[in-house]
């Protein structure tokens, strides 16, 4: 099969580096262009040097080009641009005919932009039709969620289908890599917890409702559960841990709930997409798991499975407590976007 | 005023060291005896050497004696023994006529043993009458709560009085010093979160209900709110942080709720007890507080005030979110016990 | 005694905060002006908010003014400006008649500028005469060393006097607070060591030789020992640890060397200056000290004593190994500058 | 080729886990027996559960047996026993006819026991002849060095051959995994450095001299350079970093020294042994490398290459400074032992 050429917009940051790692031996996609800002004209390896393990040689030597359509030679683009840049740049690429798969937050909540977790709401990709019609674009924008939303929504989804969740209370313990580089100063976080991440709680709440919502008359009607979120930063490197309490309409049997989670599989698994883990959700039985340092890379595609543990009945038949962990840079960013692109490609949207 | 002589049972551990620090210049109490186990016969400074800052000279030179009544010369004793040891030893001291103020968990839930936070349930000290009658002891046992319970119950109390809490969902992020020394292996916790602390969640739930309960017919009737707890260990040194969501009967006005917390004062403040902070609860307005490393020592008596922050309305008029932090070794252990002893002394119970 | 009014140039940074803490109850000096850059016009508490414990109330409310002589009402100034700013600004203050005591690096190696550790080379203050003559200034500049130099030079000095050091090999393990705020990204240093600090090794070497040098014909002749330095950053908050190996001319007796260090006292101790610790060097006998988290605040004036440990004979009679620790923000910055100002004031230089 | 059956003595510890990982797909060796102590009779996965990533399924289900020859079915054994256990047990296995390849310290300095780094002193394996003759054993003991020694001796060796090293001054910054599990308490090391590791400095010094020594008349004559060592523990997970200063007889050209290190290859590379990295020493040109978190796993066989950086001329033509990093559990323990076994097997010693 001929590989599609891809560009990575904003390739020099932390998420960009993970795209490169995950695409290194990708069967369908081949990196053709890397864009940047301060590092334009530099070799890629010099643009990121010192922050990360060495990139593959052929990528290391690529020249970083400006983030403009005319410099990009690709069948479609991944965008991991900062929010402000993404707001202007992604539409300009879509207008120029590029399919854009973006993990930036700028357009996630646009009514005609799909916000996708391939296992949860693959059907929302249909929003692209509305988007193209409204905007008159040859290309389009598809987005993937905030790094904290992904693990939460992926875990809520099978439970919601089974038990109808009325309310969720979640406290997150997020890794420093979620803030990019340089990100969180060491003086602020070493031996400490910062109980606040700007804008994060609102994103988690509204994005989750959109993802769990139904497509009705070409528009996503958000799900109606109540979500209470507290986001904190803890001194871990990778892997966002979330403590979740849910109240449901239907009574929960804990063993059944574990099966619902552990056996969950969806379209990407059925299609055997290259970046789809065999199990989107891994349920651990040990008392003290998931743990970020041990479990962030779990799964048949490392970092693409959410690990759930300590699934416990609450004080009522209709309440449940658990912890979940997902790799914020893989399942929560580069990985979910690649999986989304694979899905879009399967649907013939990238050709 | 003549100072009372006190013994510290289990003085060589981490909590013991904090008793010594807090009692160094205490106006009412004077350390007379230090007990230990492996270190019997050693100088105190050699028994704890390497783990902590240097103790005061006169304490450093004291000899560690066995934890038995006959070796103890004191008007009353503080116990920070391990649970198993406390189960046998504390009654033997009470039987021998000693008042025992204990932060060990062994007897906290005994029906006739008070479990005290002086600002919350000073009246529960009356249980001692029942205890003495039932057990025929000259002395008695008074306990203080688990280090995680203290901050939670102290924060819930004024809110409960005002709004009648129906349900509380709490996720804790607890410091490694809460596990004592050697405690948590560095390989387990560095750059990691361990989402489980053995026995902790149950303690937090049942202790809080006892503390918030009412004394009826000489017995404490537990409060009836529902508490859902998830306890985690994070790589911080001191200070347990707790993310709290509550549902109340009466609607909450956030500004009023902040005032209810910030202006809360109780018997220890009225009596101006030596270890009573001017404000048991400090409310911060910054978006990103409380933080363990910055706020654990807050207050006029360092470590005795709980710091509350991010007080936010939930999705309904009857829900509220906030974070609270308390110093697990001071307000959560040695400090709350000393304050309890001060209260008991004021009531004439230690003479 | 009437207090001198002082200004702190660059008061909002990490070192500035320590000046404020150390000067809070100073008997001789009173903070009159705080200068800044981005935060001009703000209250001080808002300029530093979130980074540090709360400043004293009267300081918190002070307005931050521009770093120019015309805005400053003071008898002398402390400068903790960034290097580039210090290069221009400090001379402009000296020209305007202000004595400047600076811990910035800009002018440390100027031939006519004293580089002072009050216990080591108080006599170098005489360079000010040459400086004023050459530059025609009413005021003057006196500097204090790099945070890593101070602990090293203070430890080397009594050993050098006694044994004549020919060569020193030093490897440092420096705390993140030495890089200021935001300083070192958490992603770079958590669970890691960065074996490089830009410009640091050269500073340590040339500054130490100047400090240990002799004033001959109004000029400092650098000491002639050979110093080999490797500077690393480790994930500690405060306190620079240094592993030191020395080769000397005269044979060393280890017990004598310990006494030489432990009993060292100098002009500041004789004059009983307010910020002078009783012992500039504390020698620990335990096998595993000094440790940054335990020992950084050691001494009668917390943070002003260097802690030395593991003093061991090398493989030859003329070699010695030891570790030393000094608080980089206190003895290594704000504290050494305040002590230097006290010395200068004693000599009548600030009136 | 038929695979040799191997037993791992003390398989449940941290080093044992790394043997299992490294041998998972080994072409020559196949794990046949795992021994333990407290966990005898348990499945392997239960014996190590919670400390490490999941072991391969076939290993996970193996039963842990007692560390006695009669329970062991193997062509040879690896020993990662604690020192005290190794002292008695390893000779008993050798006596029973087993070749023992040990990374325990018990017998390293025995005159007739080889202490091997395959790239440095493969010829020392001949000591086994003396050993068998003297002790009358069918089997034998071959040892590998302390985890800190390996990286140092491997780096010194090519420099020593080229420049004749007279003196080395080394300060180590060692990871917590070097202390095993539970090892270093988190309260001791978080945000801290412990400048002492019991017994380590002496081991590094005497082992290095033995390894660099020459075999003369069937006995190893230690090398004669002077080594001054200071060992510290820092809060890193894996990878021992060492700051090295050397004095040589012959003058050093820095570029040449880098080539000497980077191009060093030896018997294992020539023989293309399965666990031999293409480059035993990787020289980095960046200013701020090697870093434990980034570089510990460097090389074509992850964790088997030592990374050297910041190679700088000292103050004299005959002095040189550099930093080196080696993975303490792989090149410093399990990996060097496996490579040694491969070498021994090549020489026909394991059949």
Q: What is this structure's SSE topology?
A:
Four copies of one chain form a homotetramer.
Chain A: E1 4-9, H1 14-23, E2 29-36, H2 44-48, H3 57-60, E3 64-66, E4 76-79, H4 83-95, E5 99-102, H5 127-135, E6 140-143, H6 147-163, E7 165-174, H7 186-189, H8 200-211, E8 214-216, E9 219-221, E10 226-233, E11 240-248, H9 254-262, H10 267-270, E12 281-283, H11 292-295, E13 306-313, E14 319-326, H12 330-346
Parallel strand pairs in A: 1-2, 1-4, 2-3, 4-5, 5-6, 7-10, 12-13
Antiparallel strand pairs in A: 7-11, 8-9, 11-14, 13-14
Helix pairs in contact in A: 1-12, 6-8, 6-12
Q: What report would you give on this structure?
A:
- The structure is a homotetramer of 351-residue chains.
- Chain A folds into 2 domains: 4-146 and 334-346, 3-Layer(aba) Sandwich (Rossmann fold); 147-327, 2-Layer Sandwich (Dihydrodipicolinate Reductase, domain 2), CATH 3.30.360.
- Chain A starts with a strand and ends in a 5-residue tail after the last helix.
- Chain A has helices spanning 14-23, 44-48, 57-60, 83-95, 127-135, 147-163, 186-189, 200-211, 254-262, 267-270, 292-295, 330-346; strands spanning 4-9, 29-36, 64-66, 76-79, 99-102, 140-143, 165-174, 214-216, 219-221, 226-233, 240-248, 281-283, 306-313, 319-326.
- In chain A, the strands form 3 sheets. The first copy, chain A, has a 6-stranded parallel sheet with strand order 3-2-1-4-5-6, with helices on both faces. A 6-stranded mixed sheet of chain A has the order 10-7-11-14-13-12.
- In chain A, strand 12, helix 11 and strand 13 (306-313) form a beta-alpha-beta unit.
- By secondary structure, chain A is an alpha/beta fold.
- In chain A, 31% of the residues lie in helices and 23% in strands.
- The mean pLDDT of chain A is 96.
- Chains in contact: A-B, A-C, A-D, B-C, B-D, C-D.
């Amino acid at each position: 099969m001929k590989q599609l050429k891809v560009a990575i917009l904003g390739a020099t940051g932390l998420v960009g580096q993970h795209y490169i790692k995950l695409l290194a031996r990708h069967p369908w996609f081949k990196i053709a262009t890397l864009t940047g800002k301060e590092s334009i004209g530099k070799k890629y390896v010099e643009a990121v040097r010192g922050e990360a393990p060495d990139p593959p040689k052929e990528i290391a030597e690529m020249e970083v080009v400006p983030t403009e359509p005319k410099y990009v030679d690709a069948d479609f683009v991944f965008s991991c641009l900062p929010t402000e840049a993404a707001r202007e740049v992604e539409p300009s690429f879509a207008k120029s005919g590029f399919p854009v798969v973006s993990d930036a937050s700028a357009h996630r909540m646009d009514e005609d932009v799909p916000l996708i977790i391939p296992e949860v709401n693959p059907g929302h990709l249909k929003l692209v039709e509305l988007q193209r019609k409204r905007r008159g674009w040859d290309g389009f924008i598809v987005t993937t969620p905030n790094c904290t939303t992904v693990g939460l929504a992926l875990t809520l989804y099978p439970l919601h289908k089974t038990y109808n969740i009325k309310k969720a209370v979640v406290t997150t313990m997020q890794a420093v890599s979620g803030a990019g580089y340089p990100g969180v100063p060491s003086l602020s976080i070493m031996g400490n917890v910062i109980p606040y991440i700007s804008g994060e709680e609102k994103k988690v709440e509204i994005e989750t409702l959109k993802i769990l919502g139904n497509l009705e008359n070409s528009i996503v009607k958000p799900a109606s559960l109540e979500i209470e979120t507290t986001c904190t930063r803890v001194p871990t490197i990778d892997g966002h841990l979330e403590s979740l309490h849910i109240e449901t309409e239907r009574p929960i049997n804990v063993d059944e709930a574990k099966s619902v989670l552990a056996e969950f599989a969806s379209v990407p698994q059925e299609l055997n997409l290259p970046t789809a883990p065999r199990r989107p959700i891994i349920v651990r039985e040990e008392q003290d798991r998931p743990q970020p340092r041990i479990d962030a890379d779990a799964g048949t595609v490392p970092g693409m499975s959410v690990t759930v543990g300590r699934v416990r009945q609450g004080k009522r038949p209709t309440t449940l407590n658990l912890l979940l962990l997902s790799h914020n840079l893989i399942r929560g960013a580069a990985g979910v976007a690649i999986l989304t692109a694979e899905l879009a490609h399967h649907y013939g949207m990238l050709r």
